[in-house]
Amino acid sequence: MTNVDWDAEAASFDEEPDHGLRDPEVRRAWAGRLRDWLPGRAGDVLDLGCGTGSLSLLASEQGHHVTGVDLSPAMVTLAREKLAGRDAVFLVGDAAAPPVGEQRFDAVLVRHVLWALSDPARALRHWRGLLRPGGRLVLVEGVWGSTEPVGIPAERLTGLLAPIAGQVRVQRLSDDPLLWGGPVTDERYAVVAEIGDSGQEGREAAAAGQ
To answer: How far apart are CA 175 and CA 160, in angstroms?
Structure first.
């Protein structure tokens, strides 16, 4: 999975129901989840591993300013086209260390990326340092496949978040077929980690991610 040529996959990427969100019911399902996960007021959202920008578009439609980052130039090109004219910026770069400089965000949104990183704990610390006080990490992950499962279990992810986040809530997503375009039997979930208002906490997390 980590060796996939995402530039080659870009043209057909949106054919998967949960990638392109072309089905109105699937789109509404994801929009409803994002409305729950992201801050209630309009803010700055960093969408890491944004792909073709489908979740970025939903966040933009809900009033957020979106910065999307993806390693694949072809994916970024499609995302820019999808959100043309909107308050959104897309950058080619590594999701684990996004090229956003000193910019800080109200939410960092990451779907199906963390499990494929070589050092997920380090990435989480880095992302934590990109948040403003009171911000949140929104992580959509899972464990896929029955013969040779790949992914990151929810228990491991919440354990990695424990030292760097305040309130952490887990939502199971496997039992909502509308999100995936049909029933699924594997583990799919979202973790929303609220970050405290302590500036010192944020500096410590940022320093730990260096």
So the answer is: 25
- Written as six digits, the tokens of 2 are 């980590």
| Amino acid sitting at position 54 | S
User: What is the tens place of the pLDDT at every residue in 36-71?
Assistant: 999 999 999 999 999 999 999 999 999 999 999 999
Cα gap 48→69, rounded to integer Å: 5
| Each residue's pLDDT tens digit, 98-153 | 999 999 999 999 999 999 999 999 999 999 999 999 999 999 999 998 788 899 99
DSSP H or E stretch at residue 194: strand 187-194
- Asked if residues 73 and 35 have their Cβ atoms less than 8 Å apart, the reply is no
Secondary structure (3-state) at 171? strand
Say how many C-beta atoms besides its own lie within 10 A of residue 208's C-beta.
16
Q: Distance (Å, rounded) from C-alpha 2 to C-alpha 33?
A: 27
Q: Are the C-beta atoms of residues 157 and 191 closer than 8 Å to each other?
A: yes
Identity of the amino acid at 161: L
pTM: 0.91
Count Cα atoms within 13 angstroms, Cβ side, for 74. Answer: 10
